[in-house]
Structure formats: structure tokens, C-alpha cells
Design brief:
There is one protein chain. With 453 residues, this protein is mainly beta. The protein has one domain: Methylamine Dehydrogenase, Chain H. Helices cover 8% and strands 42% of the residues. A 5-stranded mixed beta sheet has the order 3-28-27-26-25, with no helix packed on it. Strands 4-2-1-29 form a 4-stranded antiparallel beta sheet. Strand 11 (181-195) and strand 12 form a beta hairpin.
Length: 453
Amino acid sequence: MTNRFLNLNTLSLALSALLLTVSCSDDSNDIIDEEKEENSRWITVAAAKMGDNPGDGNGGTLIYSISSDDAKDPTKSIAPFDNGFIVPSNRTARLQASEDGNTIFNISYAGDTGGNYSKYLVNGGQNFVQTGSEVSIAPYVGSAPRWIKLFDGDKTGAAVYVSTEHQFDDNGTPEDTSDDTYTRTEATMGIVTLDLENSLIKNFEESSIPLTAEEEAQGYYISRIDMPVLNAAGDKLYIGARLSKVDPATAERDNDYEILGSKTIVLDYPSLLNPTIISSTVGHGNTNGYRSINTFLYNGSVYQANQGDPNGSHILKIDANNQYDDSYTFSLDDALGIEDAYILAWRPAANGKAVLAYRHAGSQDGISGRPESFFALVDLEAQTATKINEIPYTVDLDLFQYQGYAVEGNEIYLTAAPVGQNGNIYVIDTETGEVTKGAELVNVAGSHFIGAW
């Protein structure tokens, strides 16, 4: 099916005109004070507009900022779809925020502007002011890059891609290659680092990322990579990976195969050289995540969620020796008493306690055609997880495209609204478990909210 994308220029002009002509509501509950108190920070909410189908997010991305004080106030109400700032991106934008919430970083995804990096100062409401120059990373990693902001004080971003090519023994003739025998799949990784402060390309490298000879002979190869994160020493970069497989006899895609141990690419930083691959014996499946950051540094180690694990998603641990710690066995199935848990997006606070979005076996499909989702409070050290029951769940609460949580101290801000329905910001005190229902999120038909920053 051909997607019908939002014409951003046209919508931008229309929204600008609307903002000039619409007067303020007399209902104070509908008015957001765009000034924030000195001890507050901006919370930026992102809204993904429907393209052709409910929940697809292909109609473009709008953002709106609110003070953290107002974000906790259930009498406040915001409507990003009506008066938000349109983020340049042909489809759902890939957003990042500075640690203090005062800057939003974006790299456009697909379309004519795909691969363009830009950043914006957050001034409240729909007021986002572009700062610095744009730079295109498309020549390095394409127009639909997978990128992340490294946790190095908002200095560096990293974007990655992988290209693959099946290789064959030349047993046939130039005219008839039917006798050629599949040998392996060559996977080539590209990674570019970006100076977020000065909008400059810092480094770019391409490397081959082979699996073991035994794995490759069976047809396995790395087919997608994402979510780079720095280790505590700042000298290694970890990149999550997804494996695919072909049938060696035919070189055709194999969809029914043994899921291997979760893998991560480790390479030198900042040189981006000498990639190696480490494997977990605890978790199986993919570590590249989807649109939300999948891997975080806490207390000297890196904690990583996996997806597609036949035993349900795990949180895995990589220690300072740059190897998986297989004595750390955090199963979300075991912690929540469910089956086939699938971690969609998560984020820890500085105390090692995290909020996590997930689905599981028995989750029913909603209007988006994807399963309903839930939130849990997680303790990385205790290896425990508890469903957050204060959030109202419906079959249409779909968090598959969820991208971001805002963190302020031990508090984590999230957005919870079913596709096409109103919802709220919720604030989780990760230390006490207290849940605060905050500002109302006004939705429109077929659209959804993809997080807070």
C-alpha cells in the first residue's frame, strides 16, 4: 500500500494561520502558561499524526513543550495536533533531547529532507527556535538513518546502517549460475558520529561484521543495527544487532529457525575501528530495539533490553570488561508473572529504577492492528518489575512506536493515550512508586503520542 505523507510545508502554513486567528479559550484549564518556574524544566511531548491507517504515525510529527510543574497538573490540557510545532520529517521523526530538556535534536527520516540534522531551543508551547546550522548525514548512512544521542553531556550523536550481500562459490558458468553454492552473507556496518554542539561530522567508518564461521555456514547474518551507547570508560561503543537467516541450500529467506544468543557489536571509540561481536547465553533474540533507546549506562555497566526472545524479553548486562555478564538473569516473564514479554521502550532514572513499556502473550490487537501495551516499574539491581496499575489501559493503548521518557531526578514522565483518544501525562516517582496523573493530552482520530523528552 502506498502511504500518503503529510505535506509539511502546507500544514506548517495552515497551522501558522490558525494560530494567528484563533483566540484564547476562556477556560483556564485549556491554557498552558509557556513560562516555567526556575526549579522546573521543559517537558516536550511528541505526537505522531496518522497517515493512511490508525496508529501508523506516517502523517508527520508535532511537538509541544510544557513546564514540568504544569505537566504534573491534571487541570492543564495540551493539544499538539492542533497547535504543535511540526518537526521536519517525512514520517515519524527520530527525536532526542538534551539532558536539561532545553534543546531538541532531530534527524529527518525519509523523504527529501531525510538525513538532515537540526536542533531547536525549547521556549515553551509550540515555540521551538532552530539554532545552529543543518548538516546532512545522508551521504554516510542514507536518508532514513537510525541514530541516537550518546550520553556524553549532549556532545555527540551516532547514526548507523548495515548493508548485506549474499556470497556464492562460483561453481557455475557466467551464463548459468544455478550451480553456484551459497557460502555466507557479507554484512557491512557504517557508522557516523556527529558533533551536536557545532553541527559537524566527527568521524565515519565502514567495517565488516562477520559472525562465526559456523553461524554463517548455517545462513545467519546481521541484518539490522541500532542504538549505539558508550561504555563507562568512554573507549568502547556498543551497537545492538538483529540477526536474520537464509536457507543455505537455496539462499532464500528462512523464517523458521533457531534464535541465537543476543549479540552486540563492540568497537573502539572514538576511532570506530576494530569491531568484535559478543554473545549472551542468558538472552536470545535482537538487541537493536526499534525507535526508543534500548541500552543505558548505569553504575559502571551497560543494561540492554532484548526483543523477540523465545523465553520473553530480558534485560541483559554488559560489564566493564566489555563482555556480557551471564550471571545477571533478569527475565521480564519471571518478574511480572507473564509469558512472551516484549519490551517496547524503557528508561532508567539515576537510581537504577526504570519505567518500561511492554506487551505479552494474550495482548489483544486494537485499532492499529498491533497488540495493547502496558507500563511497568523496574528495579535493575533487585531484578524486579511491577505493572503500573494507576494508568488506565485499553486495547487501543499501542506503544509499539513509543520513543521517549523525560527524566528529572528520580521522576520519569511518560505519555499514555490510546490511538485516537485523549490521555494524560503520567509522572512516576521511581523511588517511592507513586504515580501522578498529569496534564491531559488531546488527541485526534487515528493519531497517537510517542513520548516525552
